[in-house]
Amino acid sequence: MSQKSKHDAWNAGEAYDAYMGRWSRRIAEDFLAWLNPDPGLGWLDVGCGTGALTEIILRRAAPRSVRAVDPSDGFVSYAAANILDPRVKFRAGSATALPFDSGRFEALASGLVLNFIDNQRAALREFCRVLEPGGLLSFYVWDYPGGGMGVIDTFWAAARALDPGAAELDESRRFPGCTKDGLAALCAGAGLAGAEVTALETTSDFPDFVTFWAPFTLGAGPAPGYCKSLPPERQAALKDELRRRLGSGPISLPARAWAVKARIPG
User: Fold this and answer.
1) Best CA proximity match to 91, nearest among 125, 68, 110, 75
2) pLDDT at position 1
3) Which of 22, 37, 178, 265 has its CA 20 to 30 A from that of 31?
4) Gap between the Cα atoms of 124 and 51, Å rounded
5) Any idea where the domains of the chain sit in the sequence?
6) What is the rounded distance in angstroms from the CA atom of residue 263 to the CA atom of residue 108?
């Protein structure tokens, strides 16, 4: 495991929901509104995590069925225990080797996942494979290079001030392709030359600093994983540095994602 990825802990569903799930749901609402898909489709949610996007598809897209996959057994178990709609089934699975027949689905969505996949072009080829001709392929990622996830950007700025080595773990450095041009080029390389890319913008709001800080101590995700790995005195210093930058609250930070949609040729 590389230094950059060793803190990417993706297993504790409840902890991840406290850290990122609430913002995932907020941006997923905007994503589905932008997609404006036809009702009655068979959907696949790739990298479903704790089910934030799955829930919004069920509520807003009127799907015939939803299949949702994630490589984390912990996330799959958490999502299945909390989303009981009979139209959805969860299972473990990899984005680069999806466990479904070719042409199985009419719509596919993937939320806040693609940047964490090592071979993104292979993942897009798999997305295309399991969609029928004319099917809707869609995904979104945080705008890390543009400071689009203020919660994470603020955390790493404080971490770098105390530990210059933390810069290597910052998602803005790790995922330089999460830009409008970078995603358009990725899609073109996968045969999706007509892909549409747009920005989705909201905010991450906290009533006070205590609410902001608590999820970073739970260890689910790169920044919380780094935080939890620190000895107590360094974790306390990081907490103090963040409080100095943000104050006691309330706190409101930008949250911007790049959303992509395309139709499968054929």
Assistant:
1) 68
2) 37
3) 265
4) 21
5) 13-263
6) 10
Lowest-confidence range among 4-18, 63-77, 128-142, 193-207? Answer: 4-18
- 3.30.70.100, 3.30.2170.10, 3.40.190.10, 3.40.50.150: which CATH number matches 13-263? 3.40.50.150
How far apart (Å, rounded) are the C-alpha atoms in residues 220 and 11?
Answer: 7
Residue with tokens 């609250």: 249
DSSP state of 169: G
Are residues 206 and 242 in contact, defined by beta-carbon separation less than 8 angstroms? no
Task: Give me the pLDDT at residue 3, please.
Answer: 43
Mean pLDDT across the chain, nearest whole number?
A: 91
Nearest to 205 by CA among 13, 23, 21: 23
Say if strands 251-263 and 131-142 run parallel, antiparallel, or are unpaired.
Answer: antiparallel
**DSSP symbols for 103-150:** T-EEEEEEES-GGG-S-HHHHHHHHHHHEEEEEEEEEEEE-TTTT-BH
pLDDT of 9 > 60? The answer is: no
Query: If you count them, how many residues does the chain have?
Result: 266
Report the first-to-last Cα separation within the chain, whole angstroms. Answer: 40
Strand order from edge to edge, sheet including 105-111 = 88-92, 65-70, 42-46, 105-111, 131-142, 251-263, 196-206
Is the entire prediction scored with pTM above 0.85? yes
Please name the residue that has the structure tokens 């399991």. 130
Residue 24: predicted pLDDT: 76
Cβ proximity of 138 and 259 under 8 Å: yes
Beta-strand pair 131-142/65-70: unpaired
CB atoms within 10 A of CB 240: 12
Burial class (CB in 10 A: 0-12, 13-18, 19+), 151: buried
Q: Both tokens of residue 121? A: 């072009």
